[in-house]
Write a structure and sequence with these properties.
Blueprint lengths: L3 H8 L7 E6 L9 E7 L12 E7 L4 E6 L4 E6 L14 E2 L2 E3 L13 E3 L6 E4 L10 E4 L15 E2 L5 E6 L5 E5 L7 E4 L5 E3 L10 E6 L5 E5 L3 E7 L10 E8 L4 E7 L4 E6 L5 E5 L5 E5 L13 E5 L4 E5 L4 E5 L2
Parallel strand pairs: 1-26
Antiparallel strand pairs: 1-2, 3-4, 4-5, 5-7, 6-7, 8-9, 9-10, 10-11, 12-13, 13-14, 14-15, 16-17, 17-18, 18-19, 20-21, 21-22, 22-23, 24-25, 25-26
Length: about 325
């Protein structure tokens, strides 16, 4: 829970540009069981606002939260209570808890994603550049300094056509979704930047928009913003011999921009935007569990785009084009 002193101030904030906090009172329950718990902006106070918070990632082991603000071309760093945490690096692009100058591609909502490795704590950003190449995946250390891939000698992976989503599994392997590579769709790299799986083959999805990986290496892919498909690996951790089988279970959300998996429960979260903005949750068999952030609720989303789920402190996070909301299980 947020501290009582800051909670009172944060509850007064109604702007949809702030970062909102909810309390999630149980697993797989209905809208009435969610409770608004406060709001904060880029500097951790109720007096500041994000421009367009589009993606969020959680480093569970370190207890850190990263918010990508595509409107400000910046990445912000907080603890799980919303207090700013300084990056600490010496790059001129760093100032306190802000990594700026990202030049994010605003033409496609999928090209604004952030993910964090649970092993190395490296931060991965898609569709951005700091003196780099557009349509690239870039890596940064937790202090905001570039994290070089030994395979490339730089902090970039390039050669993508329509870079969409990024996810990192529990072994630190990096999953990248490219929407314009035919049946290839998803590529998997090891932490050094070498390709492990170059294509999911015939089972692979076309037009992947966002991806998530659960604790067993099962891959969830949001396709065309209208369908979440599930792919089961033949081996996990993945290696060059790993193949994938498309599972029969699918989730058909309303128009959605983001998905995430809580690796404690392996429940799936989907950020929907039509016919109403909300986050819907499902179990690992596709059964609907509940929603939050819908119209008329305290701290309603008003828009939805990205979603992240974390087992640390029992939290799940939803970012929007203009806001970020946090759900906490108790």
């Amino acid at each position: 829970m947020l501290a009582a002193r800051s909670l009172a101030a944060r509850l007064a904030v109604s702007s949809i540009f702030a970062l909102f906090v909810l309390v999630f009172l149980g697993v797989g329950i209905a809208q009435a069981d969610f409770e608004f718990d406060g709001a904060f902006g880029p500097d951790g106070t109720s007096g500041t606002e994000f421009v367009k918070a589009s993606s969020v990632a959680v480093d569970e082991e370190e207890g850190l939260l990263y918010v990508l603000d595509r409107g400000a071309n910046a990445l912000y760093k907080f603890d799980l209570e919303g207090n700013p945490v300084n990056f600490g690096g010496s790059s001129p692009n760093l100032s306190g808890n802000e990594l700026s100058g990202l030049s994010i591609d605003n033409s496609n909502p999928g090209e604004r994603q952030v993910a964090v490795s649970p092993t190395s704590h490296v931060i991965y950003l898609t569709g951005n550049q700091i003196g780099g190449t557009a349509k690239s995946l870039q890596a940064f250390q937790a202090d905001g300094e570039p994290a070089k891939f030994s395979a490339t000698g730089t902090n970039e992976l390039t050669g993508f056509n329509a870079l969409q989503g990024v996810a990192v599994d529990e072994n630190g392997d990096i999953y990248v979704a490219d929407a314009e590579v035919g049946a290839k769709g998803i590529q998997i790299y090891d932490p050094t930047g070498n390709v492990i799986v170059s294509s999911l083959g015939a089972a692979g999805p076309n037009s992947p928009a966002n991806i998530a990986v659960d604790s067993n290496g099962i891959l969830y892919v949001l396709r065309n913003y209208l369908e979440v498909s599930k792919y089961i690996p033949s081996q996990y951790p993945v290696n060059s011999s790993t193949t994938y089988i498309a599972a029969p279970e699918k989730v058909d959300p309303n128009y959605a921009h983001g998905i995430a998996v809580d690796r404690q429960t392996d429940n799936l979260y989907v950020a929907e935007s039509e016919p109403q903005f909300q986050v819907a949750s499902f179990d690992d068999e596709g059964k609907a569990l509940g929603t939050f952030g819908g119209p008329g609720e305290d701290g309603e989303l008003g828009s939805s785009e990205g979603i992240a789920a974390g087992t640390a402190d029992n939290q799940a996070f939803c970012s929007c084009q203009t806001a970020l909301k946090v759900a906490r299980r108790r």
